[in-house]
Amino acid sequence: MTPHPATAPAADSGPTPEPAAEPAPATDPAAAVRRRARAALETARLRTLALTDCLDDDGLTAQHSPLMSPLVWDLAHIGNQEEIWLVRAAGGRPPLRPDLDPLYDAFQHPRAERPALPLLSPDQARAYAAEVRDQSLNVLAEAPLTSTAATTATPTGPPTDPLPGPLLDRGFVFGMLAQHEQQHDETMLATHQLRQGPPVLEAPAPPPAPADAALLPPEVLVPGGPFEMGTSTDPWALDNERPAHRVDLPAFRLDTTPVSNRAYLDFVQDGGYADPRWWSPQGWAHRQRERLEAPLFWLRDGDRWLRRRFGRTEPLPADQPVVHVCWYEADAYARWAGRRLPTEAEWEKAARHDPATGRALRHPWGDQDPDPAHANLGQRHLEPAPVGSYPDGAAPCGARQLLGDVWEWTSTGFTGYPGFTAFPYREYSEVFFGGDYKVLRGGSFGTDPVACRSTFRNWDLPVRRQIFAGFRTAADGPPERS
Ligand code: AVJ
Ligand code: FE
Asked: 457 CB less than 6 Å from ligand 1?
């Protein structure tokens, strides 16, 4: 068996796919934006195709779980969103397939209903996505990519008609669509994990833990004080990450690494799932109703534990971060451990604030783009790396693996920052504000670097376990000496 990367080469796993040189001077900032946008779109498409070309038509049209769409729905939805935003709104071009809009509108059809729709076949969906991509690359080549550029484009597409100027500013809408496709690529990876049947994805194992992993202090102290949360300047940041604002936090302590399978197994073996003291009232009701006894995909085999991962059953690796736990399980574990989940603001301060300069960093390690030494991102490995990995990706506070490996549940519900403005459409974030959704931070091994930074916000319902989510715990810090 020849191991080959399961999915497309990630932008951070070697030379970035370099598109044909633009006939523009190297000093033209628009040319640099175009190159970056084109590379991000191409990386996303290679991954989309890798995740769909590995199954036959039955595997693409089947619904592998009522929680998920058939993969062929994601494929055509990726193309349809790109048509709406890049071809119609940014390019001002006439619609290609306006008849598809209602079929692939996530708000018109819940996931469970999607298999019954008259969807495009796998071949039709591939051809449609490719046709849209041809046009959007033409739009990218021609679009004026500055905030002041006037344009004669007349956006025709639903759901809104935002001004093309802000949409094109520093390539925002191209970055938004690359992130959209990568988000669906992670969703499709979760569908693969839920799918029954022989394995079709392969990837090399992550590197073993570094020598100092066993010597790390269990927690780090983040001193009290203000920091900058969110961003007003990152060109591809999505609306819910904006605007930047000052948040003052008391000192707190945070686990140096995500909670491991070994630590979580202690909770399981201590009877944690049978003791309502550790659970919130809703969490306990949910545990009872669903008879939860361990993370999703764990299997008990006599007195040892196995896990199922992309079609293989293997011993549970004790030193990897726990994954596939819902918010209720994370919250119960934290209470059992005498701790709590971090708030979203605490997580971001740990992942961004540089006390040496007072500046907010784009990533825990600094402003450089992620590379394979920083974090386990981009589907290079199809599992988390051992806790304590990636010393080069450590934050100024000393915490490791804040980006990559597993999404981390926080205690905070999803809402808009002060001064939030929906852009370019309310359905990306705003319609989810104030619901039952909990914020997740940091990204997983399945998240692409383009959709991962210290300001990036993800959210899901507290019962969800099919996402690649784990957590770390926190505690109030000692008061500052004065
Ligand atoms: C940000 C992951 C919660 O999948 O529901 C994809 C991303 N939005 N298409 C989701 C998204 C529209 C979104 N999450
Ligand atoms: Fe979508």
From this structure: no
H/E segment holding residue 31 = helix 29-53
The two structure tokens encoding residue 479: 């008061």
For residue 469, the ligand closest to its alpha carbon is 1
User: How confident is the model at residue 29, as a pLDDT?
Assistant: 86
How confident is the model over 72-107, as pLDDT tens digits?
999 999 999 999 999 999 999 999 999 999 999 999
Instruction: Give the ligand with the smallest distance to the CA of 75.
Output: 2
Query: For 29-194, which CATH superfamily applies?
Result: dinb family like domain (1.20.120.450)
**Closest to 395 measured CA to CA, from 266, 290, 276, 257:** 257
Dist CA 461 CA 327 (whole Å): 8
At 145 the three-state DSSP class reads: coil
Please give the pLDDT value at position 13.
42
Q: Dump pLDDT digits (tens) for 344-363.
A: 999 999 999 999 999 999 99
The structure's pTM equals: 0.92
Pairing, β 469-470 against β 407-413: parallel
Largest CA distance in the chain: 69
Rounded Cα–Cα distance for residues 276 and 361 (Å): 40
Residue 187 CB less than 6 A away from ligand 1? yes
| Topology annotation, domain 213-260+332-476 | paralog of FGE (formylglycine-generating enzyme) (3.90.1580)
Distance, in Å, from the CA atom of 32 to the CA atom of 27, rounded to the nearest integer, reads 8
CA of 183 to the centre of ligand 1 (A): 6
* Mean predicted confidence (pLDDT) in 208-228: 97
